Amino acid sequence: MTTNAQEFDRARGAMPGGVNSPVRAFGSVAETPRFFVSASGPYVTDVEGREYVDLVGSWGPAILGHAHPAVVTAVQDAAARGLGFGASTPGETELAELIAARVTRPPLVERARNERDETPRAGLETHPVERVRLVSTGTEATMTAIRLARGATGRDLVVKFAGHYHGHSDGLLAEAGSGVATLAMPGSAGVPAAIAAQTLVIPYNDLDAVREVFAARGDEIAAVIVEAAPANMGIVPPAHGFNAALADIAHAHGALLILDEVLTGFRVGPAGWYGIDPVPFAPDLITFGKVVGGGLPLAAIGGPAALMELLAPLGPVYQAGTLSGNPLAVAAGRATLDHLDAAAYERIDTAAATVAEATTAALHEAGVTHVLQRSGNLFSIQFAAEPPIDYDTVKAQEAFRYPPFFRAMLAQGVSLPPSVFEAWFVSASHDDTAVSRIVDALPAAARAAAEA
Ligand code: PMP
């Protein structure tokens, strides 16, 4: 049997930093990264044979728990029929139909009657996904959505928000969240200045900044891209009506709204954040990833037929992929969506609420200044006195309290995201036993955060 430290040493001789994705190196929490060999339900097991309750969930996909039997069987059955054909399969159509059918919200008229503060909005589309294209990663999904928006509008500029992460394509790394935030990088080397100049970065939750950028350059802007509910600088919920106002401003200037639901899609509810935002709004393109692939590499772009059919082979916007719509990934995605019923969401919501409340209670007890930020069943802790609303306020928190908190949880067998800039992922498999193990570990971790 090897140790995590031995594995890390060896990995560093084979891969840059010993990893294939930066945050996995555990750099910001100053701990030896764990090398996992197996996982089941809410648990992961490392090379040393230690089991942890997992709150990373493969960064989102493991929403039913690891190695869910129905998902594993679906993948095994698909594998036995062939690993991929480089040609179309009926399963791809079924997954596309499933995505389109799920991403909906009740008709506006009905909602307006029930929720008084909602003003009806012209053009609200309750089925925003008519056509779907399957790709392999969230990065490809947002990259393609942007190319599509540029192709549709004949414009070049894209507006993004500081602290939002949309994958690692050249134009989207400026002031990005997730690993870019964890490593405190302003962007990335290797991105040509001419490409970076096509992205206008503005502060989140600031409609004045949105109005200003559109007033200045509105007729050059192809799209604004936004995380539906940001989760890559920790959780920072959108201000009430923010997404709706964003859609209105973009549309008033002939630009598109790209709603990035790679992380929130099918997680915060069957229709993602689109389905639960208290103020309905009309995105033009939506990107999905993580949950929709059930743990295998699969992501998607969805939107109305008129826009989506600008993609090749029908239209002039090119996009392709050797492994796009891979049958194993499609099978995992379909099995996962099939098992995400109302009962599953209830289990996720309940477990998330219990863990979130126990965490804030333990930190409070230890006298640690913090806020619990939530967007549906997604949550994270931020070491600030007031809830951060944008990247600047997120960065101003006492982030140094997180590493000792993280290490104390890990030592007690709980695997948290190795960065304060990430969401905590609870799954439908987090039962009372798993939740109690987390809750029991919290007081010692909270004391470690207090002493930092
Ligand atoms: N968009 C969002 C909102 C994400 O959270 C992520 C990944 N964390 C991506 C895009 C990129 O997805 P991928 O890592 O699959 O390329």
Q: What is the tally of helical segments?
A: 16
| Low-pLDDT segments | 109-113
Q: What is the CATH C-level name of the domain at 74-339?
A: Alpha Beta
Please give the number of β-strands: 13
Shape: globular
Examine the secondary-structure arrangement and name the CATH architecture of the domain at 74-339: 3-Layer(aba) Sandwich
In this entry the ligands are:
4'-deoxy-4'-aminopyridoxal-5'-phosphate
* Nearest-integer average pLDDT: 95
| Spatial extent as radius of gyration | 21 Å
- SSE arrangement, N to C: HEEEHHHEHEHHEHEHEHEEHHHEEHHEH
The percent range for helix content is 25-40%
Find the CATH superfamily of the domain at 74-339.
Type I PLP-dependent aspartate aminotransferase-like (Major domain)
Per the CATH scheme, the topology name of the domain at 74-339 is Aspartate Aminotransferase, domain 2
Strand order of the largest sheet: 4-10-9-8-7-5-6
Which percent range describes the beta-strand content? 5-15%
